Amino acid sequence: MHRIGIVALLHESNTFIQSPTTLEHFSADVAIQGSTLFDKFGGSHHEIGGFLDALGWRPQTDLNLPKSQSTNNSATWVNEQAQIEIVPIAAYRATPCGIITAETWETIVKELLEHVRQAMLLNGVLVAAHGAAVSENARDADGNWLARLRALLGKDIPIVATLDPHANLSHEMVAACDALIAYRTNPHLDQHARGVEAAQLMLGILKRQLRPKMVAKLLPMVINIERQSTDEPHLKTIYDLADLQRKDPRILTNSILLGFPYADVAEMGAAVLAVANDQEELAVVAANQLGDALWNAREQMEGVLISLPEAMDQVAKDPDLSQRYCLLDMGDNVGGGSAADGTWIGIALAERKLGPSIVCIYDPQVVQECHAAGVGASIPLRIGGKTDQQHGPVWECVASILSLHEGKFREDRPRHGGITEFDQGPSVVLKCVDSPVTILVTSKRMVPFSLHQLISCGLEPTAFRILVAKGVHAPLAAYREVCQRFLRVNTPGSTCADIHQLHYAHRRHPLFPFERDFDPNTP
To answer: With the C-alpha atoms ordered 280, 282, 288, 291, is the resulting torsion angle positive or negative?
Structure first.
């Protein structure tokens, strides 16, 4: 019987944000242990859902379960036919924010490792990691915790981990794991599939059918966040090459790490890796081939930036009023850790009056004021722009209070992040008195991954000509169902797409496009 443990620690840390990530951020999202993992992730589109499905887990409601199999009420779940015991250990996740405090990091990692120790003996561990976590005491935070996990397990227990493609890959991450597998889509719609792939690889290792040899190549280049859509030709050609490599049965998996430019760490930038079956030389060849292809396309990876006035002008000049626009607020990208209370686009829409528009803004103070005033009231408000000075001024307007909401909603379809349950806190829908702009104000920062954020508050997305989503690529999975045209707007903020406006103190040198004339193969 193979005992396979499951652990997760996921955070994308934006080092340009003033607010640190604390234990409260994890507690507000995911901080669970034991069989609660079955309840949280079983049947989900998340990679942990993929782990469970590939290992044969079924929910308690499946009436066809053999009697020999335990249910999700148990601490573990046994699939006797496959000789597998699933051991759910612990999972931690927080919405992207600033650097994780040292106290928070040590508390979570020590707690996670203690749960692993209590679960031993284990034959293998499946890990859901992110790859762009940064803490005050470990800038390569994922390398830090994975290395500590390896030290606890010893060298002989296999670790197979999934990564977000926004990971800033490090040699420490690679050294700690037998195999790393990154999602292959952005928006991230294949998380479940990558979880299945990781679990199948683990089973092959435990059955002694596979001996993974992994090789990574960290490239001295940055892929601008605006260029990180895997659907677009400049990246699709690289992924086509990766898919071609995978047709060779000797190549177990390969990955392209796009990098997370908002983490000021030495590892920041693009990377590739390849895993071959017992043939390290083959993995070297595959990784070099992928790395060379990415490096040779480096100039295509520089951002194509549209200013806010240019975006407003494009919408204004479009005579086809039936075309629905999504304006992607890149400087206030909540999925990249930003404040979520940016006002640049909202104020511009109110001034330009380009048609019915909807903007979402985080402002718990305004939510409180509106709850006190009640539905139907029209009151002067100061909305957003309160977190810092980067994301726009406070938006002063008179608004009518249309409705009040609990702020919880559910998404059943595959969406970026694999999340199904959302909670944006008590929320209010406002209508500007002197412009055609509707504002959904939330009391919690909310990633714009689901149209149910609007629908649950009585808002019909197709009623608007312009929808603003505070993201870059992640919102597309939902918003392309209702929008025909997308404009990625280079707004100021902690996730500004113009990386030359960011001040790095820890990045590598040389690093394209900051430095341009150098040999990538020279140390």
So the answer is: negative
